[in-house]
From TrEMBL:
Keyword hit for Hydrolase: yes
Name assigned to this protein: Prolyl oligopeptidase family serine peptidase
The entry's keywords: Hydrolase
UniProt superkingdom: Bacteria
InterPro entries, A to Z: AB_hydrolase_fold (IPR029058), Peptidase_S9_cat (IPR001375)
Upper taxonomic lineage: Bacteria, Pseudomonadati, Bacteroidota, Sphingobacteriia, Sphingobacteriales
Keyword Disulfide bond: no
One Gene Ontology MF term: serine-type endopeptidase activity
Source organism per UniProt: Pedobacter sp. KACC 23697
PANTHER family on file: DIPEPTIDYL PEPTIDASE FAMILY MEMBER 6, SERINE PEPTIDASE S9 FAMILY MEMBER
Domain Peptidase S9 prolyl oligopeptidase catalytic, chain residue ranges per copy: 741-920
Amino acid sequence: MQKRLTVILFFVISFAYAQKKPLDHSVYDTWESVGSKQLSNNGQWAMYSILQQEGDAQLYLTNVKTNTRINVPRGMNAQFSNDSKFAVFNIRPLNKDLRQAKLKKKKPDELPKDSLGIANLTSNAVTKVARVKSFKFPEEGAGVLAYLTEKPDTAHKTMKPAEKKDGETDFADDEPTGKAKTEEGTDLVVKNLLTGTDKTFKFVTDYYFSKDGKQLVFTCSGSKKDKTAPQGVFLLHTEKGTLKTLIKGKGSFKNFTFDEESEHVAFVGEQSPEKQEIKNYNIYYNSLTIDTAQILVDFDMPGLPDKWSVNGDGKINFSKDGKKLFFGISPIKKPKDTTIVDFEVAKVDVWNYKDDYLQPMQLKNAERDSKKSYLSVIDVYSSDPKVIPLTDTKLPDANIIAEGDAAQVLASTDYGRRIESQWSGSTSKDYFLVDTKTGQKKKIIENLNGYAMASPAGNYILYFDRKSGSWNTYNITSGKVTVLTAGLTEKFVDEENDVPDLPSAYGLATWTEGDKAVLINDKYDIWSFSPDGKSAPKNITAGFGRANHITFRYENVQPGRIERNTNKFVKANELVWLSAFNNLTKENGFYRTNVGSAKAPELVVMAKFKYSGLTKAKDADIYIYDKASYVESPNVYITTDFKTETKLSNTNPQQKNYNWGTAELVKWTTPKGFQAEGILYKPENFDPNKKYPMIAYFYEKLTDGLYTYQPPAPTPSRLNISYFVSNGYLVFVPDISYETGHPGKSAVEYINSGVESLKKNSWVDGNKIGIQGQSWGGYQVAYLITQNNMYAAAWAGAPVVNMTSAYGGIRWETGMNRQFQYEKTQSRIGATLWEKPELYIENSPLFMLPKVNTPVVIMANDADGAVPWYQGIEMFTALRRLGKPVWMLNYNGEAHNLVQRQNRKDIQIREQQFFDYYLKGAKAPAWMTSGIPATEKGKTWGFELTDDKP
């Protein structure tokens, strides 16, 4: 009887699996993912968005106590008010409406625009406002909202000046002269959410709240058609309703900032003549006791270097105590020579061996460099104010210390060492403390290969030295240097570094309040160091991580605004959250520990899931996060303790209708005796009595993502894992470790041995195995098929096949030379071409292509900014010359990884058709059999299946 029940159950399960469909290419657009998520400050409301790949998002607000839910179709970019009484968000147009407008080739101003949604969390009512381009809440103030509208639908038509409505504010007349220099502004609405009243200000282009929300500064452009339209900068007191004119007249004003107490405002602006090419920017300042804005810094301010001026693109900000104002200056640009006749002069790039950077890099960064600003400071309250330049062209970079309250800034430079970035990929730097009162510079660190940063309270400079692998502090007061990690047997650098360069650090966790301790990561655990070196280092996770192969990392769960320097430290005995990752099982979770203790951390949760975005409500002990696995779609959860959790979302319910899959960790020993591991994905309806084709996909190490959800999606060129698994393939993802000088042989060592290990299973069809890789993975595909004939089909995306020609090329996306990649990083040769030419040849598939018998598709795009697309051409033309089956896809104007969605969809179909033909015996498509002549480009794509052979 028991046997009969077992048989019946087996057939029931088999029948259930049989009813599930394989994924097809039509499922992508509506497949969902979790967007942003957050909790109201009081913890009573959770808000999250569910996105579609190409469709309409959904925004959900859930009352965690009453389970009341507000659903906002197409809601995005949501924020709670500081008092937790309101939520505000954009409402996007319907995706189909946007598509139709684009099909009709409408201009940007004519496209459907976002609306604004305001949810009252007391009444649950949602108010909508049409055509809103942006909105802002103050950081801490309550009850006030500002939003800027789009132009009206009839903006392109000739209109009479609109009559003022109730609530619109009158401005003093300002006679506009000349042609408007910038686009006209639109309506700014300032709304009191508690009373429902609002005020409208016309022709506003930019606006900014003070921290407490009591002050709102904005600038108005004026109007070409309405001479009474406001122009200038205005300051609204949002509680009193009073309006102050800071600047009257046309100009360009931006980069507004308030001090910490919301009593002082500063900004950059210019009122130069309309046709003047080089504008004269000033720094403007205003306080509660001053009626109009005063020019704080102009072109002839004492201390400003000769032929320098205020930089209009530089960020400005007050020190936390409000006594100093930091801003940017730069050399005055040369105006264009209007006497030059374009067709009479040469257009030439002159490459000089003494240049700091190669011409392609200079050209790539020309616009950014033309806007480069150099940090300076002024004492706001000085009776003899002057500009104190803190940086210059030879010392270009600086960061403020202790939110600007410190007497110095930390400046750095790689001047004189920039050329070496061509082959090293980075440069060593000198670090200086620069006095904010005198501008005097003091060198504190020389020739550092690593990085340095100031402590939150400004007592120390913490720096990591890659050469010694050590963490160090510099005491700003005494000048004493302390090597924090000296004498410890544990390493604080990458223990598995396999590139021919110095290993990187595991990183900084955080500081404790008052700079009493700094917390630093090793591979597994977190250490507490006294920055003055007077106390012995303490392992705050008590070595539990290393003993159990669990990597702990500090998890900042507090919502905060990084730009305000919040959450930069923890209290001395604070109970903090730690993310946890088991390196053996790949499970994820959370622990808690007291940063002042040296005890093993307390387990909260460890599971076969991937957790993301753990965030606590500001004023309540409730947390929001999302979790997923390969089998379970990501969803949003809330909890107070992880002992119980409430699932808020239900993404991708349609997944249950499809034959999904499973993910498992597999291990094997390589021919040289290395212990190796990888992920094996199997179809949900896997039957061990059947034989399955298999595709190996690889890129460095990927097993840490064992529990990562793999949505069916048109990828940039990676393997669409869930699609192939659903369609009856096994997918194998091996980790690879590399030997310097022999990356190709390393790929053979790990990938081929992993495949051979799996072929021992009767359910793997050893004659139907393919390989797929993109970029570095594409290189390895090209290399592997030169070594033997074990693969029935191969797909190489953006491969390098000739390291000798690629070595000296340019990465056009950045303008950098490619030498560093071979000498120091991923390509792992570890020597120049002239030092070890034999290694470049050994690792170049091009020289071994006569051995290739595996059919291969190459993707090489003509706008690839990382790998020169001629590498794909070299591979294709060589294999074509040798009479080997080879195809190449060049997506016109596309990048290294496909960006345009239509191209991503296209490559999914071709990849499926290619592997289906060689691994499943399906019919071949026309693009493989007869190709697509250039005369038919854009008319046919060759997807139709034929009875012909490639």
